Amino acid sequence: MHASLSFPLALPLTFALVLTRLAGAFVFVPMPGREAGPGMARIVFAFATAIALYPRWPHLDVSVITPGLLTGWLFSEAALGISIGLLVGFLTEALTVGAQMLGLQAGYGYSAVIDPVTQADSEVLQVLAQLTAGMMFFALGLDRVVLRAFALSFDRYPPGQFLLSKDLAHTVVSLAANIFTVGLRLAFPILGLLLMTEIALGLVGRISSQLHMGAHAAPLKMLLTLATFAAVLKVAPELYEAYASQVFGALERGLFG
Question: Are 133 and 95 within 8 A, CB to CB?
């Protein structure tokens, strides 16, 4: 008597839908070496994450699935994954905006290094802020929060059930606006010090015209920026964690009710 090996069609279809949802988020999640690393490693990581969420996979009724319906589900899954990834990506962008403001005022815009994420020339402070944000993302355990959000999303939104609502769009826009708020809160102490330095140098140069303070302004501002930037980094984790709580709280309210 020969044994028959049966392979349910619902299993690969469910895996494809889960992988599509996860792949949409991995575009924006601040993973170190996301673009610089080999493509096969990213593919294996996406497959492994999808398999790790196997206990939360939805159950599909293959009898009602048509090619058109499956295509619509794939677009819906990609939209949900991109929505989650976009909200998580705001955490890195907040620090990057603050570093961009400092780089323009402190004179670091003249120096550039290779950005390990985009492989393009970027300012030194901007690359430092991106690497710091990626480190804090994993140090604070936010990667586990993202996986938990995906696990909850399978219960709240089965395949094909996600629709971009007005409330969710408003949440994304409001959190995107908060990127500049967090960046300004990080950059304002240093920007204020640089402004006072400019005023002091201008007054000294006005009082004594023999002192050419303009030649010493750029090095002094760069040294002050480094010193105060190190002090600001002490409170950066608290501000980052507070903004992360706001992002994931809005994610839970907007997506999961």
Answer: yes
Q: Domain span at residue 95?
A: 10-256
Q: What is the DSSP string of 197-249?
A: HHHHHHHHHHH-TTS-THHHHHHHHHHHHHHHHHHHTTTHHHHHHHHHHHHHH
Banded model confidence at residue 113, pLDDT cuts 50, 70, 90: low
Strands 121-123 and 112-114: antiparallel
> Is 4 inside a domain boundary?
no
Reduced to 3 states (helix: H, G, I; strand: E, B; else coil), residue 167 is helix
Q: Give the model's pLDDT for residue 31.
A: 61
Q: pTM higher than 0.85, yes or no?
A: no
Residues 11, 114: contact at Cβ < 8 Å? no
Burial of 163 (0-12, 13-18, 19+ CB in 10 A): exposed
Rounded alpha-carbon distances, angstroms, from residue 39 to 20, 45, 154, 224: 16, 10, 27, 41
Residue 5 within any structural domain of the chain: no
Asked, for residue 1, whether it belongs to a domain, the answer is no
Question: How many structural domains is the chain composed of?
Answer: 1
Among 27-31, 48-52, 92-96, 157-161, which stretch is predicted with the lowest mean pLDDT?
A: 27-31
